[in-house]
Amino acid sequence: LRLDVSRVVVGGDSAGGNLALVAALTLVESLGPKPIGQLLIYPMCDQRAHSPSRRVFAEDHLLTAAVIAHFQSLYLTSPQDMLDWRASPLLAPDFSALPPALVISAEYDPLIDDVKACVARLMRSGVAVEHHEFPGMIHGFFPLGGLFDDARRAVDLAAAWLKNRFLLANQE
Asked: Could you read off the pLDDT of 32-70 as tens digits, one per residue?
């Protein structure tokens, strides 16, 4: 494919954000190429569901507690899997080698507390992180640019951030 492996960003939303963060954690420990950035859109960072936002937004929103439980039943083979950092990346021992991150979150999201905990962990670990929480938005708003101006703004923000990451990679 003639890909430039020195210019890779991992990214995803929700469960995809979980996979992107886990991929970044795995890649920085590998002998291969390292990602130059992470685009994390309301990522699932902790499968254990202890945060207050999981209770506050458990019903009447796009991502409900029942929907989360259903997705977990498809992804995890046992409740013990929730304690594995590859399922709950907030449990990973070290974030310090991770590349810069753009984190996009929604105010009315059952994952918002977990996302904020992830942002705080990245910052404490010395990772350059830019966090944008969109007021009034729900989990899943990012691809809904035809419905929400904030979704278009979030996509524009992500595109500008990605462009900047790749431009910086060219200068290094």
From this structure: 889 999 999 999 999 998 899 988 889 887 888 899 899
Contact 166, 99 (CB under 8 A): no
Average pLDDT, the chain: 93
* Catalytic residue set: 14, 109, 139
Compute CA distances 50 → 39, 55, 65, 67, 88, whole Å: 24, 9, 12, 16, 12
- For 112, list phi and psi in degrees, rounded to 5: -60, -40
CA neighbor of 14 nearest in space, from 104, 95, 133, 125: 104
- Is pTM beyond 0.90 here? yes
